[in-house]
Amino acid sequence: MRESAVRGRLRKGLCAVAMTTTMAAGLVVLDTATASAAVTPFGHDCTDQNGVRFCPTATLDQRVPSWDGTPLDVDVTLPATGSGPFPTVVILHGLGEDKTAFEDTSPEGSQALTYHYNTNYYAKRGYAVVTPTVRGFGGSCGAASRSSAGCEKGWVRLDDYRYEARDVQHLLGQLVDQGVADPAALGVTGISYGGGTSAQLAFLKDRVGLPDGSFTPWTSPAGTSLRIAAAYPRWGWADLVTALVPNGRLTDTAPADYAADISPFGVPKLSYTTFLYLISQLFGTVAPEGADPHSDLTAWYKAILKGEPYTGTAIQGLLQSMKYKGTTAIPGVPAPMLVENGWTDDLFTAQQALALYNQALAASPGADVSLQLGDTGHPGASNRNDVVARLVDAGSAFFDAKLRGLGTAPAAQSVSLSPMSCPAGAPTPAAVRAASWAAAHPGTLSYTWSGLQSSTSTGLNFLGAVDRDPVLGILPGTLGDIVTGLITGTVTVDSLGAMLGGDSTKFGPLFSQALQKSDPCKTSIALPPANGIIATGPVRTKAYTLAGMPQVTATIRNIGADSQLNAQLWDVAPNGTEILVSRGVVRVKANQSGPVTFQLNGNAYTFAAGHRPRLDLLTSYSPYSRPGNGLSTIYATSVRVQLPTVQVSP
Q1: What is the pLDDT of residues 48-89, one digit of tens each?
Q2: Domain ranges of the chain
Q3: Are 337 and 356 in contact (CB under 8 A)?
Q4: pLDDT tens-digit profile of 566-599?
Q5: DSSP collapsed to 3 states, 63-115
Q6: Does a cis peptide bond (omega within 30 degrees of 0) precede residue 427?
Q7: DSSP state, 290?
């Protein structure tokens, strides 16, 4: 496989791995011209390359000390001419990657996810582009540099805005003082891990989060008052707890409520939390267990892997720390913000985008926030080239309007919903555009299934639904064996250092092979599960389009231990096949009885004429959701399904 193809598929997950030194070296073709002596960001020389100027941190000795002394590996790409100050965009990479993730040689990029979203593209539009490696990865104290000077506590903080976001603020402040960055035109964007930081920076806006949780005005080292002027977070989150351990209390009509989101403790996304922990261990620097209560990834993962009861020091530490790893603890109106998440992203769902959108509107009804959703993101999203291009072009128009005063940004509070299109080669439908989230789905298709049904959890089913898992369902060979081994206990957390020899060059080709299998349009024979609670909807003679979060209400009685209801919404065709449209989960407490209401992750999806929706509720859906340890049976009656639709009368 050609190196460019490997790079392209690696970045498709965007929660992936650090690019190797060899691959990074192949990203830029050097021209013979020398750098302009007038501009040296962070004191680094610039070289003319591919129509722009590239100003890298070339060696570990050239890294930039952050506010606490942690050395950061950061590159800057400048327009071909000019001495600044420039409107500035920071592009932040995903978990396990490094600064090279979006450094490319042309505006079109080397693959779909760098098309019009890379250093060359933005520099040619007149921006200074800053691409740091976040602390704990790559040259910023990651696996390859953790023993270098200044890295004694340079471990992964799991997107804690008091550290990772403050690092970005510190770098921007230095560039402002050096005359490189325009203090009135600072923008941030990023994907996945970087999307989370971008959202935090939008809500911080003109403040810095301090280690004690308080805030102080954001100024450059020389004292210039600073603020973020525009943020474009992609595939990020508002509340990391609801993203990784959802309890089903999050809705699309209100901001995330951290107190409600952690009580009760939710249902861990077992395969995804395992995979993310594995990436952090293999390619980052994870704090020694017990060394840092706010970054104790190993203790937290062990506690999640152990399961119920979710009590003890590790769980309490996780819950106390997670509020700093999202936006819910950051008050105030954010900077102008365009939020992108994926319908088919099973890690950071479209619900997280709505949580950011609603948090902004709760702070001010006039908040400048807009929303775009599509079949993009982490597996199982398809990330179709034309959909990605549609979204990123809207993103660059947003930055041009907010940072350069050119053109028009998406209207405040507007939404653009790109529908999922099946089969894989089908034409891309036009986006559903509306002035607000509520206006995008004025209709509702509702149906109720009244009979008594039940589902039983044995507490033993760890791999029962592996074929539909977004992680294990696509991982090949050794990598899949490691993740499976962690889940089943045949591989221990303490043995990870020897896995794959700690060599990211072995991991990259494996993961790139896996991502080729991600297909949200996968069909199967329509067979309702024997141990499920089933609610089948009506056949319609005309097509209708779901556009939002399906809502489920049921009257239940749980006999036994803490349990869960895992929901899958299917499109059942007349020929007897089915496609998964959306899923979700709600925590059910021991011996809970009465009504329960929760929402699925959502989608924009057209049910063709003659098709019908079917909802399945299961007490176990592993390895996507960690099954409960105890035996329980949930009885349900009056299962009501509400599908928000584009059509007023579907």
Answers
A1: 999 999 999 999 999 999 999 999 999 999 999 999 999 999
A2: 15-244+325-434, 443-459+521-645
A3: yes
A4: 999 999 999 999 999 999 999 999 999 999 999 9
A5: CEECCCCCEECEEEEECCCCCCCEEEEEEECCCCCCHHHHCCCCCCCCCHHHC
A6: no
A7: T
Which among 644, 90, 96 is positioned nearest to 354, based on CA atoms? 644
Nearest alpha carbon to residue 602 among 391, 430, 411, 355: 355
Residue 486 to residue 471: CA distance in whole angstroms: 13
CA dist 650 and 645 (Å) reads: 7
Let me know: does 88 contact 128? Beta carbons within 8 Å.
yes
What is the C-alpha separation between 302 and 316, in angstroms, rounded?
Answer: 13
CA-to-CA dists, residue 126 to 81, 123, 444, 483, 585, angstroms: 9, 5, 46, 44, 45
Q: How far is CA 307 from the centre of its chain?
A: 24
For residue 172, the SS3 value is helix
* Tokens 């890298």 sit on residue: 56
Place of tokens 């908040």: 367
Round to whole Å and give the CA distance between 60 and 195: 26
Q: Which residues of the chain have pLDDT under 70?
A: 1-37, 460, 476-477, 497-517
Instruction: Let me know the angle formed at the C-alpha of 385 by 382 and 390, rounded to the nearest 5 degrees.
Output: 110
Please list the residues that pair with 77 across neighbouring strands.
Answer: 54, 129
Q: Are 17 and 504 in contact (CB under 8 A)?
A: yes
Q: Please give the backbone phi and psi of residue 335, each rounded to the nearest 5 degrees, phi first.
A: -65, 160
Amino acid in position 159: D
CA separation for the pair 287, 293 (Å, rounded)? 9
Superfamily of domain 15-244+325-434: Alpha/Beta hydrolase fold, catalytic domain (3.40.50.1820)
Distances (CA, A) of 334 to 168, 230, 237, 368, 597: 17, 9, 14, 8, 30
Q: Looking at residue 483, what is its pLDDT?
A: 87
Strand partners, 230: 187
The residue among 627, 240, 639, 282 whose CA lies nearest residue 469 is 627
Across the chain, how many H-helices and E-strands are there? 14, 27
- 289 touches 296 (CB < 8 A): yes
Please say whether the beta carbons of 579 and 449 come within 8 A. Answer: no
Retrieve residue 100's tokens.
């090279």
Distance from first CA to last CA of the chain, Å, rounded? Answer: 47
Per-residue model confidence (pLDDT) at position 29: 36
Q: Which residues contact 294 (CB under 8 A, 6 or more apart)?
A: 157, 160, 317, 320, 321, 324
Q: What is the CATH number of domain 443-459+521-645?
A: 2.60.120.260
3-class DSSP assignment, residue 317: helix
Q: What is the pLDDT of residue 295?
A: 97
